[in-house]
Amino acid sequence: MTMWLTPRIELLPLSGKAFPLAEAWEDDPRDQAVTIGFVTLVVVYLLLAAWGAGRLWRQPGAKVAVALLVGFIVVRTAFLSTLETPEPRYVLVCFPALFALAAQVFVGKGAVRTAVARVELAAEPYSTP
Length: 129
Prior knowledge:
mainly alpha
């Protein structure tokens, strides 16, 4: 979980230290507020992706796409958790998949059905008259 919830602020002039909360707030409240803001943003991304994956899973013909995206995220996270020194930056490659799943929350129900129908239509073999 630490790999996912660590704020990506290596290039910012912030410490990124979130805990212990009281001590970090006492040392630098602005730094603490920004760090907690970035952690909250990652949690929102994760929740939106879970919601979008669940929503997309109910659509016929989209289960393979959801399984591939979620499988990629789970396998990558499982592999990284076996490393002796995993770094949070190693999960950054999972964020495009996370964003793709999260975007499904904002797509209308008809748009997914139309996209699936287009894919099925394109997959049909061409017939010659």
